[in-house]
Specification:
The chain has seven helices and six strands, in the order βαβαβαααβαββα. The chain has helices at residues 30-44, 58-68, 94-100, 102-110, 123-140, 152-162, 200-217; strands spanning 2-8, 51-54, 76-77, 145-150, 180-185, 191-198. It has a six-stranded mixed sheet. The longest helix is centred in the middle third of the chain and has 18 residues, at 123-140.
């Protein structure tokens, strides 16, 4: 069995507020660095990985570096798992795009399989290249466990694609920052989803941050 451990990158400043990030090369925030460290520990406690693959942008690369460190592995960049190009929407909030591109926005959220970002990519194109990249990685590492660090769009489309589901289900797949997903491929080439959106490793950190924020708002009194 080949284990494909597919990880969404950690938190960045652009994750605060609904915003189309895409190919913007933004680094991990302090929270994201902590999430990556926790994901690295969780993965190292369960698997002996032989390679770490990453999208080329900083947020994915930094996450992959943390995950590979316990094994002495440096990330291998793969253009096939780069985030979606949101074109004219890149860097803009959901509200901005809803206001200025109402019809395209409606299609994005109501008919994902027909959507193409203005001046950018379609979900179907990203699904095709992401699946091809994962298939090539699986072929390269038969019988091994490897990590693939990518983006929420790619993760959703990879899982949908290998399960034979329509892209219409895109928005019904949840992915937290540094979420761990696991696809298993058997010797016959069939894929099985064994874990999805596992964020247990970051839950205690998130709860601690929530408590700290509450204390700050109350002037430090519990």
């Amino acid at each position: 069995m080949t284990n494909l451990i597919i990880v969404r990158h950690g938190h960045t400043a652009l994750n605060d507020g609904d915003r189309f990030r895409g190919i913007t090369d933004t680094p991990l925030s302090d929270r994201g660095l902590e999430e990556a460290s926790l994901a690295a520990k969780a993965i190292a406690s369960q698997w002996k990985i032989s390679a770490v693959y990453s999208s080329s942008v900083a947020r994915a690369r930094m996450t992959a570096e943390a995950i590979g460190a316990p094994f002495g592995l440096k990330p291998i960049e793969d253009a096939g798992i780069l985030d979606m190009d949101w074109g004219k929407w890149t860097g803009h909030t959901f509200d901005d795009c809803r206001e200025h591109y109402p019809e395209e926005y409606r299609i994005c959220f109501e008919h994902a399989s027909a959507f193409r970002a203005p001046g950018g990519s379609s979900f179907e194109e990203v699904k095709e290249r992401s699946m091809a990249a994962v298939e090539a990685i699986a072929d390269r590492h038969k019988g091994e466990s490897v990590v693939i660090v990518t983006h929420t769009v790619n993760v959703r489309l990879i899982l949908i694609g290998f399960l034979g589901m329509s892209t219409e289900f895109f928005w019904r797949i949840r992915q937290g920052t540094c979420a761990i997903n696991v696809l298993e491929r058997d010797e016959g080439g069939l894929y099985y989803l064994s874990e999805i959106n596992d964020t247990g490793h970051t839950k205690a950190m998130a709860e601690a941050r929530s408590v700290a924020a509450g204390l700050a708002l109350s002037g430090g009194h519990a």
